[in-house]
Specification:
Elements: E1 5-6, E2 15-16, E3 18-20, E4 26-28, E5 33-34, E6 41-42, E7 59-61, E8 65-68, E9 81-106, E10 117-122, E11 145-151, E12 157-159, E13 162-185, E14 200-210
Antiparallel strand pairs: 1-2, 3-4, 5-6, 7-14, 8-14, 9-13, 9-14, 10-11, 10-13, 12-13
Length: 212
Amino acid sequence: MPDDVTANPGVGGEVFSTDQDGSSIHWPYVKMVFGPDDTQTIVTATQGLPVDATPFAAILETGLLELIGEDSTEVSASGDYSNTADLALGGTFSGEILSFMLASHENGSGAVQEGNGVMYFFDADPDVSAGDTALAVIGAEHATIIGITQIQAGDWDSDASGAVVHKTVAIPFHAIATVFAVYRNTDASAVWNSAVGDNEVLDINMWFRRDS
């Protein structure tokens, strides 16, 4: 069937390009354009629609937060937990934890601790404090764990100023605003804040990829 439609038939108006199917319906042909008012840039095979190539910073850092402070209750036995570090993501995002760093140092007269342990990452606050020996509600907090990483004594790199662990991981997370991190000491020889002047500190920093 014939294509195209003439405006004001019988008078002789403009012709509009169409594709008429097997019935009486005309499907108009259009050209996609973009640009500010009164300008038109035609979209072609070599000139696509403009897009923001970097809509947001894909790799983000939470910043250093405290897991065990010099004034925290002692974390001295194997099985003792640290405080909970609330690692704010800066918005409600989904993505993947790429790596984290633990920094251990001494603000008093004790030794820098660099023993075995476990890092837990949660999508809800487990409400754990330094010296606790179990999660707040048995079972419920375990169900909110999104990642677990073992820390071995040999993972620490130390000098006169302290010790550092840097772990590369792949821990996906759904749309949340905060990742909650907890360290669990599993080394009876790693004793945190067990005496006056024994002021060990453990901090965490985390890097993640934002996907939404």
